[in-house]
Structure formats: C-alpha cells, structure tokens
Batch of 2 targets.
Target 1
Amino acid sequence: MPKLTTQDILKLIDGLRAEGFEVISPLRINGVVKLAKLPPGEAPLLDYIRINNSPKDFLLPCRESLYKYRSTATLTSYGLKIRFPTAEGPCPVTIMPECTLPKSKIAFFGIHPCMVNSIRYLDKVMLSDPADPYYKGRRDGMFIAVMECEEGDDYCLCGMLDSYKVPAGYADLMMRKRDGGFLVRAASEGGKGVLALINKTQEKDGVPELVPKMKEKYTFDSTDEAEIDRRDAKEYVELCTLCAACTVTCPTCYCGDIEDEFSLMDPANVERTRLRMSCQRKCYSMIAGGTTFLKTKDARFKWRLKHKFPFSERAYQLKGCIGCGNCIAMCPARIDFRKFLGRREA
Amino acid sequence: MRLAFYSLTSCEGCLTTLITNLGPNLESLWNIFDIDYFKLVREPVGGSKVPKADIAFVEGAVVTNLDRKKLLEIRENSSFVVALGTCASSGNIAFTASRGVKLKNKKLRDVEIFEAEPISSVVTVDFELSGCPVSAEEFTDALLRLINNIEPIQPDYSVCYECRTKGNDCLLEKGRVCLGPLAMGGCGAACPSVGSPCYSCRGPATEADLEAYLKTLEKKGLDKKRAVLMLHMFTGKKAKELLKNGE
C-alpha cells in the first residue's frame, strides 16, 4: 500500500482535474466544515469527523430546474390568464417543454464511509426503474475517494448499523491516516489509473478492516412499523420546534416537491422546478382543502423514523439510516432517536 | 386588472424595495396592470382620492386617525387587500415602541396619534406578505398566483430550515440567542448566514412552538428573557398572541 504525503494528494487531485473531474471535498469555510468545490491549489481537509452538509447537496440540489415550457398565456380584460396544463382541461398543444439534462463529472475526495453509503441509498432510490435522468446525469462517471474514519463523535452510530463498511463498487480510492501521511489503495480500475498518474503502483497486501470507535453504544430492539407506532415519543418531541434541521442535513432524505415558477418579465414562460421537501413541514402531507395527515410533532417524528427503517427496508432492502448522526448533532434540542428506538449499552 | 399601492405610517422601505429589486420587472408590471395609485413612482391618477382596485397592497402600521380613515377607504374600494411587509401584518417595531409611552400631547394640529396597530386590527386582510422589508420575489410570486386564481401561500418553514440547507453552523450552539426556530422562513437565512442572530423580522413561523423553543433554550442554558425581548422587537402583535398561547 503506497504511502502518500499531502504533496502527493495535491498531485493526485490535479490529475483528477486534468481528467475533467469537478473535485468536491471537505473544506473549512469560515470555521464551518462542509463539502464544497475545492479551489485549485488548496489541500482538502482530511482530518475531520462531521460535515454540515452531505453529497446529497451535489447530487440532488435544493432547487433544480426540470424544464421550461411556454404556456398559453393570454391577456384578458380581467388581466393575465395563464393556462395550466392540468388545472384547466387537457394539456394545450402549444406546450413544448425545453429541457437540458445536467452532465457533470463529480469526484468526491475524502468523504467518510457513511456518506458513501448514503450515495448507495440515493442510487437505489433515484436509479431504480424508472431512473431519474437529472440524478443520473450527475451520478454517471462519479469518482469517489474514501477517507476511512477512525473515531466518531458523540452522535455517530455507524458502528451499530455496519455502515462503516464501504459497499463494493462504491470506492475508487481508499485512504486512511498513518503517521502524518496517508495510506492509499485503489479499489477500482479508475483508482489504479489515478494512482499511476503520480507513479505509485498498487502493491498486493491485505489491510485489516478499520472499525471506527463509537463514543456511545446503543442497541436497537426492533425497528418494525408497529413497534415505532406503539412507542411513546412524547418526551422526545417535547423540545422539537419543527425546524426540520434533521431532514435537511440527513444525507439520505430525498423527498422533493414540484413547483411552477413564473416571472413577470415573460409570464408565459414557465419554469418547472424541483425543490427540497421535508416531512417535518406542514405542506408535506397537505392535500387539497388544506388538510394535513401528519398533524402533530409526534406523528412527524415517527414518520421520519418509519421512512428510514421499515419503509426503506421493505422498498429497497436497505436501511435509510446510514449512521452519520447528523439529525442528532444538527438538532437545536439534540433530540436523540437512538434513545427512542433502543437502549444505551454500558 | 387594477393594482394600487398604499403607504400608511412607515419608512416606505417595502415599496422602495419593490422598485429597486423588481428592476426590469417593474416596467412589465406597468405593462400588464393598470396601476392608478403608486405615489413613489408617479402622481396618482385621481389625485389623493383612493381609486377602485382589484388588488390593494398596503404597507405600514396604523398609527394616526388619518391612517385609519384611509385604510377603511382602501378596504371599501378594493376587492383583495394584501398587507405588505411586517408593519402592515404585525405592527413591527412601532407596535412595541408606541406602548407604555406617555405623550404630553396626543394631537398634532388635526392629526391624532394612537398606539400602533397592524392593519388586520382595523380591517379584514386577505393575505399577508411578511418581511422587513418585503421580498420582491415573494411579491411577484403572490401576485402571479393571485391573478391566476391560485391561493398565494406563506412559507411553512422556519429560518432554521434555510439556514441548515445552506450548511451553516447553529448560532444556538455557539451560545447566542437566535430566534431561527420560531421565525418564518423565506429570507434565505440572511442574518444567521453572516453570523448575526435572527430577530424574526418576518413574524412567527406558521407552526411556531414557543414553549418548545423556550425549553430548548433552558436546556442549553441560554437567556430566555432575552429571547422574549428579541421576539417583541419585530413581531409586534403576533408576539403578544404567541406569548399568550405559550405561557
């Protein structure tokens, strides 16, 4: 396993850039550690525990334009009248959507294994039949360099969900810290190619699995739908202000909303956009007439956990929780779902 | 379709913001609609008389007897009244500032001065656009929805939602009192993003839970009194209602 210095890492990243990749890595920006586009010449931050955002922000952006269409807007005596394709009868023939699919080559450099698992989950959701073309455009040809994690903070729980293991085919380079440098091994052909760029070759030797140390250990009794419904969440949601920080920062929360956006300049030109949605918001479960199904904080908290565990296991044979602990760490009240679902080990 | 823009007692910041932030859209606003009353842009068509309008946008709080009279006239002549900005929707700074002040003279020539009230205290308001000042995008969005017979909506999320979407660190974590969890979003978390706590200038969020918020502050060992004081600053009448429900 070749050992690399920071200089080698910089060369490696330049190699990736030369191949047309947009390198995204953890960075400290104004004191906040988050994933961002790496400026040329700057070294990525590889010694960190938690990032404030996740790969989701680059694969499923908060706001994305799906397509534009010309509606049959007319000026009437009453004012401007825009005909909607669905609200007023059949879709007018004049509607001609214009769509440009995103095409990018993203390289995630130095993300932790839990985040890699979140990409795997998003793939399962967005690429299963029918595949989402917008997600696919960003996802295709992605390069992932994983920084293996040694120790978690108070909120990490990958140890109990086994999400410190990188799934097969989801890493090109595996890195781990060693004596001030980095041990790097290629896990794919693409990874080998990149290592060859800096004249390092893969040596055949087995490496022991690195299991990150968890500060707090919990065991989950059962994550069945019936069991979650049965439990009393009152004491947990008492402090909840419904700020939705838990779902915003969750790397696997993929729910979205579709909205038509108009402009005053040309009201007939409508942009259909996809925006982020959260189950902690009121309009998530709102239907025509204004009724919401998830009325209480209790119901929304349970819904989030049900989506992460039983629903995801049923639909995708995967847990929706990848054990990063963002929903606990980012919550202003530190509402801890681990205590709700399980018991703390001594 | 006829629009009208009125000012009561205010800094006229909301209407100024519309003019500056709509940019080239302002011209198309003029092409699409008949605007008879928008004093900041041109002399009203019928003089100072309140014209008939389909949608009336009213900024400012009701402070004087003239405001009250004008507002009643506006309501009579408009089919849809929109409160523009926080002064109109909750009284803003004037609401708290005008209470508990002993004025020697409550009359200046023929202008009587009262305690400031949001316009909803005097007339029925059909829709409220919050913000100090109001956001031009939200104004456009609400207007385009209205003319298409779609009900305009207020953001249903708090400032935290946008703040965390931006990947910011939480100010409450840094030991600073921030009203983010209580405040109505839609501003793009402008203040917390530059390290300044939220003062809830857009009024409380649709599902603001004051009790839970104060308990969270208590858990973190932060000053609850300061939070309530901050809440009074911009939120005016709505803060009063929120505190009544919360405590």
Target 2
Amino acid sequence: MTSPVPTPSRPPERVPATGAGPSRPDPVLSLLRSGTGTVTVLLVLIFAVIATQNPSFFEGPPLMAFAKKVAPLVILAIGQYLVIVSGEFDLSVGSLVGAQVVIAARLIDGEEAMTFPVIGVMLLFGLLVGLVNGLVTTLLRVPSIITTLGTMLILFGAVRHWTGGAPTGALSEGFRVFGRHGLEGVPVLGQIPWALVIATVITAGAVLLMRSPYGRTLMATGDNDTAAAFSGVRVWRVRTLAFVGSSLAATVAAILIGGFAGVTAQVGEGLEFTAITAVVLGGVVLGGGRGTVVAAVLGALTVEALFTLFNQLYLPSTIQPTAQGLIIIAAVAYASRRGDLRLPERLRRRPDHPTEQPLDSPRR
Amino acid sequence: MRVPRVLLAGAASLTLVLTACTTDDPEGAPGAADGGQEGSLTPDAEWFDQAEFDTQLAQRDITPEGPEDEPWMQAIEPEWIDTSEFAIDDPEDATVCFSNASVSNPWRVTGFITMEQQVEELVEEGRIGDFRSSDAADDDNQQISDIQAFVDAGDCDAIIISPSTTATLTPAVETACESGVPVIVFDRGVNSDCMVTFIHPIGGYAYGADAADFLVENLDPGSTVLALRILPGVDVLEHRWAAAQQVFGESELEVLGFEFTEGDGAQIKDLVSQHLQRGDVDGIWMDAGDGAVAGLEAFEDAGRPYPVISGEDELSFMRKWDEEDLTAIAPVYSNFQWRTPVIAAGMILAGEEVPAEWVLPQEPIREDELDDYLERNSAMPSLHYAKFGGEDLPGFPEAWVDR
C-alpha cells in the first residue's frame, strides 16, 4: 500500500543525502520541523487576525490582560505536559481546580491571616491528590485515564457534598492578589500581572526540569517504558512524580483562577480538556515520549488566543466549540503530515526489521 | 495512495461541516443567533410569545390574593379548584414524593433547603407524614425513571415534580397523573394540564423586562449595553432575553451584543475586559446574577466607572451593590416558590381548594429595599438568594448558613 510517488512534504526521507543526515543544519528549517513549528505559525496567524480586528490589542494593557487570563492555562498545560509526555493522562485537574478554590474560600472565609496557611493546605492537598493518582496508576496498574477519571468524579462529588452544591465563604484580598493584581506603574505596559511572573517562572523551571536527568528519564519512560525499565529507571517513581507535578500545577492554577475571578459554583469545569487540547495542539504526542514544554506553553497561548479571536470576531458562542474543534483537528493533522510529530527516520522503530527480532523473543 | 487519502479526509470533513449546517438550518435558531450576537433586537420567534409577554407584564401590576407577609401563599388572579376527590382521612400518615430536576446551582440548592424546612413544619403540624425526594442531576431520562419509580411503588399520596425540561418530561408527568394521585408541578412547566396545580412565579418575560426597563430608565439615550447570558436554549433564560430584546428594541440604547458565559466568573471577567478594551460599556444586562461580581471587577481592574447593572437577588451581588453604591437592580425569580408545592400538597390532601395555575408574585429588589434584604440575610453565605422566604421556618437560620 505504500505509494511509489514521493510526498513533496517530506523530501529528505526519499533523497538520502550522502553524509548529512535527514535533518539539515538550517536553523529556520529545523525550528519549523520541530514540534513547535505548526503551533508557532498558528499562533502568529491568530495574533495577526486579532491585530487587524483590534489594533489596540498589542498596546500593553490589553496584552497584559490577556497574559493574566492565559497564565493559569499555561501552568495547567505544563502540568498536563509532564503527565502526557510520560505516557499517561490527567483528567482530574479541572475538578481539582474547582475543589481547591472551594476549599480556599471555605477555609479562608474572608480572613486575611488565614491566606498563607490555607495556601499551604492547598499545596498539601494537591500533593496528596497527585500521589494518589500516581501510585494508583503505577502500583495498582489502573490505566491513568480511569484513575484520573475516578479522581475527577470523587473530587467533584466530595466538593458537592461538602458544600451542598453551593460554595460558601470568601477569599481574602491577600489571596486574590496573585491572580488579580500585579506590579503597578510599569511604563508602556501599565501593570505586569503577578500571574504572568508566576507562569514565566514555572515555564522556565519546567524547561530546566526537562533538561535535567529527571526530565530525560521522564521522556524515555513515555517513549518506551519497558526499555526505560531495563536501563534502570524506576518507572513507577518517575511517573508518580509527573502526576504530583500536574496536581501541584493545578493547585497553583487554582490560586490564580480564584484570584482572577473569585468563587463561583462553576469554577474549573472543563479545564482538563482545555489543558489537554493545549498540550496536543503544541504537538506533544498522546502516548508519550515526544514534544517540548515550550510547545505545550505555545499550545496554551494558542487556545486562549483562539477564544479571544472568536470574541473579537463576534463569532456566535454557539458555533465556537465547532470552530475550535475544526482548527485543532486541522492543525494536528497538518503537523503530523508535515512530519512534526514523527521521529527522525534513523530513530523510528521498525518492529519488522529482521535484526530486531532476536531482541524481542527473550523478553517474553 | 497517500494523496487520495488526504482528499478523502478533506471531503469527509467538508461533508461534516455541510451536514452540520443543513441540520441546524431548519431550526432557525443559529441563523437568528448570528445576528443576535451583534445585538439584533428582534426576539427569536421560537422563544417569543407576544400574548404571554403582555400577560406577564400586566401581572406585575396586579395585587395578588393572599396574606401580604407570606408571598409564597399569594396567587395572582387564581382560579380556585375543588380538590375534595383527593382528600384523605389520615394526612398525618401521607407520603409526599418529590422528583427534583437537580440541585446543580446555588438557586436550586437554596430552594431545596427551604423546601425541606417547610416539610419539617408541615410534618409537625400533621398536615403530611413523610417526604421522599429523588434527584435526577439534570438528566431527563433519570427523572423519567424517578417518576416511574414513584408511580410503581404505589405508596405516594401526592407527587411533586420540578421538571428538568418541558417537552421531554411531559409524558412522565402524564403517567404520574394517570396513577390517580394528585400531581403538583412547579418552576419549569410541561405541555399538559393534567396536574392539579402548576406553581410558578410570573416568569421569564417579566424578569427580563424588569432588568431592561431599569437600564432604559437609568441610562442616557445612545449609551451602550452589554448582555451576559448563561446558556442558549433553556426556556426560562431565553424568555428573559427575548423580553429584553423587545424592551431594548424600543429604546435608544445601543446593545453591543450578548455573550454566553455559563455563569463562570473567569469567563465573565475576561469577556467584559475585552469589551472594555474596545470601547465604553455603560450598562450590563444579565439573564442571571451568577458571576455579576466578576463582571464588575473587570471595570475596577480596567479603572473604569461602574456600569448601571441588573444582577439578581444573589447576595454576593447585593453586597457589592451596597459596598460600591452602584446604580443597580436585582430582578428576582422568586426562590420562595420552593415552599409552595409542599404546602399545596398538604392543602390538596386535606381537600382544600388550590389555584389551578398558582402564579406567585415576582418583584425585583430595588435600591430602597436593598438595606432591608441585606439586614435580613446578614448571616447567609454569598451564594444565597435574598428572597428565599424561609425566615419564619423552624431551622432558620442554621439550615441555610451551614449548608
């Protein structure tokens, strides 16, 4: 069923150049060929259209307002990235954000002095949820999609039960500073939101983490956990830590979202899918092993920019999910056809290759 | 082989898009919404009934029958009907069954607590014996089987139904009627008149018009108004918007458009911020008060003056209104209506007359009443509704405070 006609989009595979591998040293081309290529193009495209609709969007304050809104999603996407790249899913983050905001409102109940103790409690709770997700998935061998679906329902139901359906209490002003306020009086920009600062720090931290030995192990685990286990990786520990990372990211996102808009009964609903969408749009492969943190962050920016664009175009809210779905499918399909999401030819696994056969049999 | 596959995928998606259009078109709603989003002021025919609109607006000015300090017992132009056929000898042993659509939002949570407290009082008085409730969690199929279960069990002496949707639940309500026990429907209606009484406040048109009238009165001609709506397609909410379109259409206000927010504070704040980036917003019309405070914060954070706003009688909004001295109104979808169905059940089982359609009063809270309502609800949580009407019930205030 293979076509004898070479596809124009992937000439290097068909024309083996002597000496120079399949990837050329051209930096522009290599950026475009990396996972971040398509999403960058899409993001620039969306920003360009926004600029034509609303030129004042890039004038500072509106851009900072956008940054404030997108920061929680960026952080959630980074958390989700850690889990997805290790070959798992975390569906519990939306419920966790909701639960954390409700817990914060109930425990703080408007008292300033409670702000930091409660943030401590929230981080501990996030840690606990991450540990449960991770250990149930790795040690009890429940598929993560089931584990985190369960956690999602448990948290949702527990919060409903605890609050009787309507959250009570109030967040303190001190708590809301992180999501709502920022460094005032900055020239041109007006205000640098704390949310932007926090998201930037976490992004930088995540980039460094992925370059550390842990990050490389995480990537290797997602690519092939059997191989990783044979090379001495404690797979359960690596993956559990990824779940903990995701839950802690959701906790930080909850602090920012609660700060941004206060407590409503609907907070956090559907965020897990927005976060997964962001990660996938960034070209991170479901199933693990490929993709970069920066791509996930760009994916988050793109998803939020898309919402902004729809709003600027006065697209009816009823049709927005449809448009969003089409754009996501188109972007990922385009990226995978261009080869963004493929391993370079030399690294691609070929199960039918004769020399790999002997390796397979002793394993079973 | 590869190129045809791409073509195939492309053709498939194209088909999908095209069929999506063709299935949507006959309903007429998306087409109308296209224009509506940018502020079209012609109400969608599917959701607008001129006669009903006029009736509801007129009902706002009619003095209801019944005790003035117990609005849940009042009725507007009631047509009293005889219920002696349902009278039973031992009401103190009667079982009243309640099929609830859900408690999925704070308004329903508040109402359900009030209902439970009312039940306790009625049980103490010996007007009913036992109260059973089921919660369908907004699932029509679940509610149909809940009602069927009540009918099959055969030990309900009266069935109260708060339908989750109108058309789908109609046959289930009719099944309950056929079982011979008295049926009471409240809040959303069904397309049948087999129940003994249908209890509801005046309705969505009156709500939307109260809010829109206030904006028209308090804004100068040419001012801009942004409408924030929860969801499309829910009749009580669509009626509010249809009435507002009608009122704004006859005014000189400029409606910037409407946005669906799902009542989510973060979305509301973001959407309002974006509108503020593009120009002035002088007034905010909301079809429900959820997240009104987040919308107001968008004005604070952008350093702009507060808009004239219509929220709801939810306390977070009313407290903000008081603190910031806003020009505002709280339209009310009377939460105290949750008391009436159980009281009606007691009346029917005692063979007393009830109105065939029990239209409860529905009056917005205006500035002169604000302090009074805040005072009465001072201990209540912020997502509580001021006109919950349970101040005289035995569990007040703990039942609502520690929910």
